[in-house]
Amino acid sequence: MTSPTVGFVGTGIMGKPMAENVMSAGFDVIAHNRSRESVEQLATQGATAAASPAEVANNAEVIITVLPDTAAVESVLYGDNGLIDELESGQVYIDMSTIAPGPTESFAEDIDNKGAHMLDAPISGGEGGAIDATLSIMVGGDPAVLDEVYDILSAMGKTITHTGGHGAGQVTKACNQIVVGCTHQAVSEALLLAHRAGADLEQVLSAISGGAASCWSLRERAPDVIRGDFEPGFFSSYQYKDLRIAMEAGQKYGVPMPETQVAHEMYKSMEQMGHGTDDHSAVIQVIESMADDEARIE
Fold first, then answer.
1. What is the DSSP letter of 47?
2. CA distances (Å), 183 to each of 214, 218, 232, 262, 280, in order?
3. How many whole angstroms separate alpha carbon 178 and alpha carbon 185?
4. d(CA 69, CA 76)
5. Where exactly does CATH 1.10.1040.10 map onto the chain?
6. Secondary structure element (H or E) that encloses residue 140, with its range
7. What is the pLDDT of residue 36?
């Protein structure tokens, strides 16, 4: 596929910088978003603004969605002025949202029946990864189709991995979010313990980040957490949604997931406490509320 026009539906906190990076790689972009501000900003950079998902499908060879949940993807595909009725043979639809694997398989079947092709390609790396084009992209679908659009994905991500057939990308993302959610929870408990015991939080982080406990949560989020900086790179409400998907997958496949259940309940508490728009590392606030204390430095 030589220099296709790339359509984006969903240009929010993740989708907008992803579209910018695709433009920077030399591809023409047409974009639609429910809120117009981000699309108008992209238009000032050379993108074409579209009034609907259908208009995107009519003007792009490759269509990418970056949406918050399964219901949003379903609405963009099947709703008024949706994508599905406009897709034609040879077009490629890439869903880079994080949604449930089951519906993904169903969407792929409908799209295949149109003669088009679907890849499920959820992402990890947060807003920073979207801006820096260093996302990890987990791809399910036909590997030959992935080869066709590889240059587009490589404009957005550093690691692109084919993990199986339709739905496998979403299963992989569920696995990713299990590890992320449980790790944030473990780091939160460790930080509060260190604080209550009177240890130097910055030195604790330095010490354990250099050993076997080293992880992304410690390196990239914990330094902000101990300063009370919960500016979102990835919303806690999205982490909660992703853990719901993981729990449903665990039930479907009969996999015991006790740690995931705990993390799921903690992020549910985040929602109930009104912290859904905080960064997902801000789950520490739940156990701080339980302990009536805060693990912070000046």
1. P
2. 11, 9, 17, 12, 11
3. 11
4. 11
5. 171-291
6. strand 135-140
7. 92
Token pair for residue 42? 């992209």
Would residue 173 show up in a list of annotated catalytic residues for this protein? Answer: yes
Q: Which two tokens stand for residue 47?
A: 């993108």
To the question of domain 6-165 being in CATH 3.40.50.450, the answer is: no
* Mean pLDDT (the chain, rounded): 96
* Segments of the chain assigned to CATH 3.40.50.720: 6-165
First to last CA, the chain: 54
User: Quick check: 96 and 44 in contact, CB under 8 A?
Assistant: no
pLDDT of residue 126: 87
For domain 171-291, give the CATH number: 1.10.1040.10
Of the residues 114, 158, 173, 241, which is catalytic? 173
**CB neighbourhood size of 163 (10 A):** 18
Q: What is the pLDDT of residue 1?
A: 59
If we measure between CA atoms, which residue out of 163, 165, 176 comes closest to residue 129? 176
